[in-house]
Design brief:
It contains 10 helices and 13 strands. It is α+β, with helices and mostly antiparallel strands. It is globular, with a radius of gyration of 25 Å. It starts with 7 loop residues before the first strand and ends in a 6-residue tail after the last helix.
Amino acid sequence: MSLESGNLSYRMFYMRPGLPEDHLDKFARYALPPIETLGSGDITGWVSGRHLLDRNITDENAYLAGYLRLTLCKAERKIPPALLKAECKMEELAEMQARGISFLKRKEKAEIKKQVVERLLPEMPPTLTGIDFVCEQNSEILYATAISDKQMDAFSIQFKEATGIGLIPLTPFTVAAHERKVDLRDLAPTSFSPDCPDDTAEDQIGRDFLTWLWYFSEACGGIASLDVGSASVMIEGPLSFIFEGNGAHETVLRKGMPVVSAEAKTALTCGKKLKRAKVTFACNENSWTTNLDADDFALRGTKLPQGENLDPVSRFQDRVLAMESLREIIIGFYQRFLDERLNKDEWQAVRADIHKWVSNRKTRV
């Protein structure tokens, strides 16, 4: 998924420490091996952001608009499933006809498949995939299109191997530790439902935050004064609720008007909280729409503010600045939430208001 155009799905990371002065040399030492060396396995390495075969990592092609822009590329050969199935079936039919039998044992089929793979795989063209990242040289924040846990683990391992720098994903817990110097692991759970006591609630601060955002947007006007300026928030569907209790653990509302549906009120009343939702933020005449994952602050299908018809370099710079602004807005709202959540007296009043918000929700059929 390219950082230069379209909607983005990505995660944010802290870099500890920042990039060393010789970081380009380090990445160059772990550049993608020549594609000609690809055998039956896979090869992985760094390439510039220009294209997935640009192994020449230099200051000229690794930086764009002043930002370091590289890609972790993986090359492998794959046999299309339909082709593999057809080739195996042909070999099985030929084997049965030659031996005058009507079926093959499982072990025999497995051996035929192994032989077909060994024959076809060297003929397959390389398949290239990439995980893009961008950061400023002197910044502690990095953005990467490593959206799944598997991608994130692979990216973090390769990044540390090349640079010696450990990446810490921005999550509700790490942001609280970094921005507020607090450990949220000992924070007692809280219920957002008037029908569920606190001791039955899940201990998931990210879901508390996303559900609080919904409450804040509807019951408190949705506008907050943040470091980046006056910002507003609006929750839209689809909505994904979750509660690891009895009955249905997860409820996903997609079509119609999920926010004002009876099903949404039922989910809240039963103690479920938002795990993922489509959220629109607005600040300084710009707006961002993203599917925010409460557990890990992953951003999916993020629509950045529409910029002017600029040249490619300026457009890329605008997009990265928009990503940075979105991070500041999300963290700003999160700190606003923490101000209330970590103050016992204040939270009691907020919690009571949330219970009223849940109970008095108007729904549409």
